[in-house]
Amino acid sequence: MIIAVANQKGGVGKTTTAQALAAGLAGKEYKVLGIDLDPQGNFSSACGVENYNVLTVYEVMKRGATICEATQHAKGGYDVVPANIMLAGAEQELSQTGKEHRLKEAVAPVAGDYDFIVIDTPPSLGVLTVNAFTCASDILIPTTAGIFATAGISQLNETVTSVQKYCNPGVKILGILFTRFNPRANISREIRDLAEQLGEYISAPIYETYIRSAVAVEEAQANRTDIFDYAGKSTVAEDYRSFIEEFLKGVNG
Ligand SMILES: Nc1ncnc2c1ncn2[C@@H]1O[C@H](COP(=O)(O)OP(=O)(O)OP(=O)(O)O)[C@@H](O)[C@H]1O
Ligand SMILES: [Mg+2]
């Protein structure tokens, strides 16, 4: 299963969710590969892998390096293909026909080696995110509360529809995950309102689990490790554990 974690809105918890998912699934003995497809390289640094002076996803997509050559092992027990700012150039450089398929073609030889491949995407709907959607079987959408966060979802939905039409008919939206919730807010009410707002833009399942806000997330990232390793007993770790249970239930039926 190949999951693209996407939302063109910045700072909604894509990278945090991708890392928690990769680390959480690895903790359950699944074989997991995380791919950083964001020139910001946040996923790479959060996972504690090198992303300079090493082969990255850019060399894989542009220069014919293999995924294996670019793969590193993260402390959390999963593999990572890193990214850095060089990938920003790919947006312009990947202009030939077939550009949407670069990542899919690169991943194909190793796809069978992993139970889950998790792709972290940048906050845009450009060629990198389209590559992720073309490669993926499923799309996971983290979103924060607020009307601006929800409005962008319809645009995201249009991109998914266009990828389904032209590049990858099988890809589907797995679900929407609410993140960075203020634990003091009236959560159940807020969730209901959000779900209602979202319903106007997209028909996709919404996870029952929501991820609360906590400083431990930023601290874990600063320490270049995952939330379960850094603060396994924190509310966020608890929330991401519940999310992974719900995710697996959905996957395994
Ligand atoms: N549950 C949370 N509680 C507190 N802070 C969080 C939480 N989730 C994410 N953050 C923080 O919010 C910021 C944005 O999170 P993250 O990098 O995961 O979002 P993103 O969608 O990947 O952003 P970008 O669009 O820039 O790639 C980070 O500083 C992160 O530490
Ligand atoms: Mg990110």
Structure description:
The protein is α/β, with parallel strands linked by helices and 253 residues long. The protein has one domain (2-252): P-loop containing nucleotide triphosphate hydrolases (Rossmann fold). Helix content is 46%, strand content 17%. It has 12 helices and 8 strands. The chain has helices spanning 14-27, 42-47, 57-62, 67-70, 90-93, 102-111, 127-135, 147-166, 187-199, 216-222, 227-231, 235-252; strands spanning 2-5, 32-36, 72-73, 79-81, 116-120, 138-143, 172-181, 206-212. The protein has an 8-stranded mixed beta sheet with strand order 3-4-2-5-1-6-7-8, sandwiched between helices. Strand 7, helix 9 (187-199) and strand 8 (206-212) form a beta-alpha-beta unit. Helix 1 (14-27) packs across helix 12 (235-252) and helix 6 (102-111) packs parallel to helix 7 (127-135). It starts with a strand and ends with a helix. 47% of the residues are buried. It binds adenosine-5'-triphosphate and magnesium ion (MG). Adenosine-5'-triphosphate (ATP) binds next to helix 1, strand 7 and helix 10.
